[in-house]
Amino acid sequence: MPRDPARAGHRRLRRVALLGAVAALTVVVAAVGDALWVVHRMPTVAVAAPGSGEGTSYLLLASDSRERLTTADRARYRDGNQPSGERADLVLVLRVPVDGRPSVYSLPRDLYVGQQRDRPHRLGLSLQDGPQAIVDSLCSDVGVGVDHVLIADMDALVGLVDSTGPVTVRTAAPVRDRWAALSLEQPGLHRLHGRQALAWVRSRHPEVLVDGRWVPDATSDPTRTSHAVEVLTQVRAHLDDPMSVQRGAWEVGPRLRRDRGLGAAELLRLGDALGAATRANRLVSVPARLSGTEVPFAFVTPETRQALQPLRSRSCPAPG
Question: What InterPro entries is this protein classified in (predicted)?
Answer without folding.
Answer: LytR/CpsA/Psr_CW_biosynth, LytR_CpsA_psr
